[in-house]
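Why do we bother with holo predictions? Because pocket geometry can differ from the apo form. Keep that in mind while you read this record for nicotinate mononucleotide.
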Amino acid sequence: MSAHETQAATWPRPTPLVGDATSAHERRADPAGWAFSPEAIGTLDSVIAGRRDIRRFRPEAVPDSLLAEVLTAGHQAPSVGHSQPWRFIVVRDPAIRDRAAHLADRARLDQAGLLTNDRAARMLDLKLEGLREAPLGVVVVCDRRVPASGVLGRATFPDADLWSCACAIENMWLAARARGLGMGWVTLFEPDDLSALLDLPEGVVPMGWMCLGWPDERPPAPGLERAAWSKRMPLEDVVMHDRWAGGRTVDGVPGASPTAPASHLGPRDHLPPSSLAAATDDADTLLAPPESLGVLDRAVSRVEALGRGKTPLGGTLILAGASHPVSALGVSAFPDRVTRDVLEAAVAGESMGAVSARSAGLGVIVVDAGALGDASVPWAFSAKPSHPQGDLVSTDAMHRLDVDRLLDVGRGLGEGAARGGLVALGEVGIGNTTVAAALACAVTGLTPRETVGIGAGADAEIVERKREVVEQALARTASRTAAWRDDPADLLAALGGPEIALLTGVVLGAADAGAPVILDGLAGSLPGVLAVAMEPGVQAHLIAGQQSRERAHAEVLRSLGLEPLLSLRLRSGEGVGACLAASLILQGMKVRRGVARTAP
Ligand SMILES: O=C(O)c1ccc[n+]([C@@H]2O[C@H](COP(=O)([O-])O)[C@@H](O)[C@H]2O)c1
Ligand SMILES: Cc1cc2nc[nH]c2cc1C
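The structure, written out:
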């Protein structure tokens, strides 16, 4: 046998037992031979085309096995240098979910504030997230604690780890969609807020909150396209050849270039996803355009969800009044005794708040939380502080024991009123816009110049005195106000007023008993801020009845993530705005309950 004959002989190709088993010959003969079947390709394409950012969810639980499949898909994503920087935090705790929903509510208003008026109104009409409804939250975070240069491929593109996490999210999205699950990627957060909520260490950054559950919508097109917000660009507008080009020419004109912290909340679920879904499901069957009542629709859905559709068509105004020693410093245009007069008129059913409540179909509870005079206002519920009150500038507004008692009494009143339906807050207290401005500075970080308003009718001189008083009060209590979130009751003791403390208790008690709480003007909204600081889940119960004329009110509502139903520049106090809003909500509920239903 010649050497030549030996070379001509063929041996079977040694097929490797690990790795790629194909041969060069096979790949040359059929370059497309790695493809899946046409049916599989068709399915993949329809899953990609049919993926939607889901905002509405059904309450039914997602089986653990399906969640595991979705997470497995995420974990199979490509990653820079095979670094697998993603971590998945599965959130089931309603307290954490509620806090996240509050953050998103706030970010929503912040974002609207950056848009033109028209875009802002349209944005506020959009349903941008389903945090409260979705049974599961999955927060995808990127662990960036290693230096970029230590990861293959990241030295030059240091953000490639974030892109890897985005690939994981898309995999999860597709895997969820294929299984009929819905997923929504919510980025309506200040990232630092989300990091703090979930105790993320330095260097671990959140990519957003994925709402996951069975979808309660099946949109054939992207929601934002359906809402005429935007539409998908033609492919040719986003593809270029060889180099960056000037874009498509239309009609001869070249186009532009292509373009946890610890929660004080117990395990109670304040607003279970199932009831919110039931309320929106019901609204969906109306013979009316979706979300036809606009801003009012949200409030009505919230009320119906809280009451599982059985909220009584009524409610109670809790009107609390107190005197304020700070008024002796010349901060009000009116004398102290007006507070008592108004409470007496309220008991007689003749004060502006009492009449407003009656005409809205609400009952009234009048509370004397310390109006001038030794005797309580006759026929009012008496909750006077038993220790001396202070003027904020030289001494604390209240003794801590009085604050705790007012909170307790308020809780009891709120719990009782909750049975009647809506709970509206009302306050009266000459001088209390100064107190409210000081509290607003502490809770929002605004300056006295930005918070002090004209109250019941101050002139320029009085406004200037109010500013000085608020500045001095804040200077006296600086270290305590800085740490107010650790002990909101101490802030009430330092700078609060008895009626504000009592109403804070009312918010806590009413929310605990499941009722919606309608806030009023500035001093009638701060109890909401303080109650949420004490029990974050309370936020789900709050409705901003109105935005009053007082300066800090807009910022206080923004910090709560609440959009007011009315904005009439009221300055009446007494819960008048809350009653007007309650009347609107009750009417909205009647409309919602009475309108014709369509067949499923
Ligand atoms: O609700 C508001 O935002 C509001 C705005 C201005 C005035 N008020 C009412 O006016 C009183 C406080 O005003 P003042 O000027 O005495 O601080 C108090 O009784 C409030 O109910 C209330
Ligand atoms: C008359 C009057 C009525 C009020 N009600 C609430 N704040 C008030 C302030 C004044 C001055």
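Residues 257-267 have pLDDT under 50 and may be disordered.
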